């Protein structure tokens, strides 16, 4: 089985429950926290959102692309790349027709070099267990960016011993994947098992940086 086939199977297993539903209190608190921190980073970017071009690797059902539309990016300036046909179909149903959606392996996606102001990835690299494929996807992302563009990275940093389908991506590995990038990193997201167990305590527990398991990183291309 190829690594791409294995990734598809891992994601299929995750769709068996509702643990990622925004109606769950821990999920909307994670989402709101991440959105606040992301907006702080994007507010410092040059230009207006209507001028930006952005691609998301692993766009899923299109939720993050919808957020970019609300921010002011234009449909014709957005591209989503998705490996799983079912998720790609959901994205097509949710997004305006002008948004470009590409199926398959992101490392070979048809995105023009030096054409993007932003490239997003959210918990994609932690699902790629093959180092070589990780690097190929990172190289493609870097190739797509304009000088002065940036990768918006959100992923977890520690291994989950109860979930062999994923592995943490520490900041050291992010630097290895994007050796020329200038990184601005923030720890976010209360450890999900703790958040699910004590959603009412999320704001209090999340005050402790050591309990945050993810990093939101802006990786700028010189």
What's this model, at a glance?
The chain is α/β, with parallel strands linked by helices and 222 residues long.
Question: What are the key terms here?
Answer:
globular, alpha/beta, Rossmann fold, 8 helices
Describe this structure in words.
The protein has helices spanning 3-14, 25-42, 63-71, 85-94, 131-144, 171-177, 192-197, 202-205, and strands at 54-57, 78-82, 100-103, 116-122, 145-156, 182-190, 212-220. It contains eight helices and seven strands. The protein is an alpha/beta fold. Helices cover 36% and strands 23% of the residues. The chain has a single domain, classed as 3-Layer(aba) Sandwich (Rossmann fold). The protein starts with a helix and ends with a strand. The radius of gyration is 17 Å and the shape is globular.
- Compressed to H and E, one letter per element, the order equals HHEHEHEEHEHEHHE
Strand order of the largest sheet: 3-2-1-4-5-7-6
Low-confidence stretches: none
What CATH architecture do you see?
A: 3-Layer(aba) Sandwich
User: What's the CATH first level?
Assistant: Alpha Beta
Average pLDDT? 95
According to CATH, the homologous superfamily is Vaccinia Virus protein VP39
Q: How many whole angstroms does the radius of gyration measure?
A: 17 Å
């Amino acid at each position: 089985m190829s690594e791409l086939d294995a990734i598809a199977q891992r994601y299929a297993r995750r769709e068996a429950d509702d643990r990622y539903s925004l109606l769950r209190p821990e999920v909307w608190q994670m989402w709101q926290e991440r959105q606040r921190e992301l907006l702080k980073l994007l507010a410092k970017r040059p230009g207006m959102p209507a001028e930006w071009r952005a691609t998301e690797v692993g766009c899923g059902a299109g939720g993050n692309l919808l957020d970019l539309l609300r921010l002011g990016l234009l449909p014709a300036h957005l591209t989503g790349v998705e490996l799983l046909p079912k998720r790609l179909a959901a994205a097509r149903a949710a997004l305006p027709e002008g948004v470009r959606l590409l199926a398959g392996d992101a490392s070979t996606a048809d995105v023009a070099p030096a054409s993007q102001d932003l490239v997003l990835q959210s918990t994609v690299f932690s699902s790629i267990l093959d180092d070589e494929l990780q690097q190929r996807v990172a190289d493609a992302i870097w190739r797509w960016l304009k000088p002065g563009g940036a990768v918006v990275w959100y992923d977890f940093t520690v291994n989950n011993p109860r979930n062999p389908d994923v592995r943490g991506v520490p900041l050291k590995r992010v630097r290895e994947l994007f050796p020329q990038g200038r990184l601005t990193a923030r720890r976010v997201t209360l450890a999900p098992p703790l958040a699910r167990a004590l959603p009412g305590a999320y704001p209090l527990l999340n005050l402790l940086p050591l309990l945050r398991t993810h990093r939101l990183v802006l990786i700028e291309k010189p």
